[in-house]
Amino acid sequence: MIIIDQIFPNYYLPLTQETRGMITLDHLRLLGPQGVVVNVGRGKIVRENDLFNALQTKIINRAALDVWYVYNPEPDNFGRLWPYSEAFNTLSNVLLSPHRADSPFDDLRRWDDVILNVKKVVEGRTDYLHIVNLEAGY
Questions:
Q1: DSSP letter, residue 128
Q2: 20 part of the active site
């Protein structure tokens, strides 16, 4: 099993110029024919064509994708909206999900990190969760 952190240590993998397309066919080959890719973070971190090719040619065994490559797709001739350029929906070794990982606003647990950060401000701490780094692009 290949762990992303072993290949790319010290990455939190936001989508930036540095991380866009950083996982290539060469990396997918490291997984081998029993390899499985599960991407629930950022679609464009894995090169779309490379992932499709690896799945289609059985370089890797399968993938589960909860992230997309095209978030504002144009309708095709039948009015369908596809969130990718490659036809992942035609592959039998891909599980696609609708990228609905957020929780509703009435779920108070979603505010735990915000509350923790507010407490850290009150305590004069600076070790906040989920820091935004505009210079890095996220």
A1: -
A2: no
